[in-house]
Amino acid sequence: MSAVVEFRAACYRIGTREILKNLTLSVAAGETLVLLGRSGSGKTTALKMVNGLLFPSAGEVLVDGTATTAWDPVRLKRRIGYVIQEVGLFPHYTVAGNIGLVPQLEHWDEPRIAARVDALLREVGLAPEQFGARYPSQLSGGQRQRVGVARALAADPSVLLFDEPFGAADPVTRLELQKQFLALRRELGKTAIFVTHDVREALLLATRIALLRDGALEELATPRKLMQSAGQEARAFLACLDWSADTL
Amino acid sequence: MNLAFTSEIGQLTLEHLTLVLVSMAVAIALALPAGILITRRDAWRPWVLGFANVVQTVPSLALFGFLIPVPLIGGIGKRTAIVALVLYALLPILRNTLAGILGVDSAVRESAIAMGMTGGQLLWRVELPLAARTILAGIRVATVSTIGTATIAAAIGGGGLGVFIFRGIASVDTAQILAGAVPAACIALAADGALGLIERRWRTP
After folding, report:
1. Cβ count within 10 A of residue A101
2. Which CA distances in Å does B111 have to A18, A47, A130, A145, A162?
């Protein structure tokens, strides 16, 4: 399997503070790599290095074999989908306008954009005739996040980046969104990098989990392997799973 | 009221409107791009805002006076008056352009950049449409105050409804003062109403 995204000794510093230390990691086509860690562990920083929102202070990050610094910044971003917790839908565009924006920037013709928007809305479980003409302010939080996912998929990107996308959703909605994510992955087989601090979510969605601590890669394992890890940070996260059950 | 005013009212109102329209057009043409620029260049922000602020603190009558001896833009007449009115109108437009653009939700801006929008696309498709209401509010404030301040143009030979007011003050003739002040107030109210209407239309759904 070829690496779609590859971190090679990537570091990120702000002044003397090291946010990310020597991250070496490769993400294969079709896998979902989850970056798991506490707040401030450097997981979001690592994610933003993939689509060139940040560049490594040392080392490099390769996308499709080319360093992000060598990519045309606009081309790089257009082929990578990006979903964030706050969603960031454009409030002055309809749902259809939001989803169709990247295809429009890519100069697709109108009928093709309309067909793509309809297909994507169905894909994320929203009826196009009901939701296409709505504005983001007329949607619930869960619906907004679905539109955010559809927008990220619009121009058929080769990689998808998720930054705690479901973190603000209520637990019931979150589970729905997670199931949707798994269904989409089965169907589309996209490569994804997913940032979360929720160990349950990591175990549920990942093909592999990269556990970060203070900017360094602590462990890299499949969910099953991580469950059996004796590592201190892994145990700390796994303890979150059964603590509530134990105390009750 | 002396009927001799009536023909003069029409002419001076027209002059007044011309002063305001030309000044506002120039002020928008300067302050809007400058406001956008200082959202991109943090280091220039205090200087540009500082300049507009200082101009605003100069008493208007004094500002008109200061400009008279300045070569090229100064002298007696309409041109000097327009320069002074433009300087006065800069601050509200500048400040609201800055506030409007910086007020765009950072998640929205980050999404736009991450989608691969170029700088121009970010500005025209996201920032300006979302800041439009705030910018328009700044233009509205500037327009209404320019209509009032333009009455002082008469003091340096710039014409407009201020001619009545200054003449009325000199001859202690309340009717003449009112002949200048009432139409100026009416123009200000009309402009405020019209721009307010446009502003409300620009509502984000």
Report:
1. 24
2. 26, 14, 25, 13, 12
A216-248 pLDDT, tens per residue?
Answer: 999 999 999 999 988 899 999 998 887 666 666
pLDDT for B2 equals 55
Paired strand residues for A33: A193, A208
| CA distance, residue A230 to nearest chain B CA (Å) | 38
Residue B111 has its nearest CB partner, among A75, A84, A137, at A84
Tell me the average pLDDT across A50-63: 95
Per-residue pLDDT, A245: 65
Query: Best of A45, A72, A74 to disrupt the B interface by mutation (most B CBs within 10 Å)?
Result: A74
Rounded to 5°, angle at Cα A127 from A124 and A130: 135
- Report CB contact under 8 Å: A92, B117: no
pLDDT digits over A109-151, tens only? 999 999 999 999 999 999 999 999 999 999 999 999 999 999 9
H helices of chain B, in order, are: 5-40, 45-57, 60-67, 78-102, 106-114, 119-121, 128-149, 162-170, 174-201
Chains A–B, number of C-beta pairs less than 8 Å apart: 63
Contact call for A88 and B108, based on CB within 8 A: yes
Residue B61 token pair:
């009558």
Please give the distance of CA A32 from its chain centroid, rounded to a whole number. Answer: 9
As a whole-number percent, the residues of chain A with pLDDT over 70 amount to 97
Mean pLDDT, chain A, integer = 92
Contact A89 B108 (CB under 8 A): yes
pLDDT tens sequence across B54-85: 888 888 888 888 888 888 777 888 888 999 99
- Nearest chain B Cα to A105, which residue? B117
Q: Return the residue in B115, B118, B133, B204 with the most chain A beta carbons within 10 A, the one to mutate for interface testing.
A: B115
Token digits for A220? Answer: 């890299």
* 3-class DSSP state of B70: coil
- Residues B69 and B184: their CA atoms lie apart, in Å, by 28
Q: Residue B165: its pLDDT value, please?
A: 93
Q: Which SS3 state, helix, strand or coil, does residue B174 take?
A: helix
How far is Cα B200 from Cα B132, in angstroms, rounded to an integer?
11
Contacts of A1 (CB under 8 A, 6+ apart): A28, A29, A30
Residues of chain B with pLDDT under 50: 1
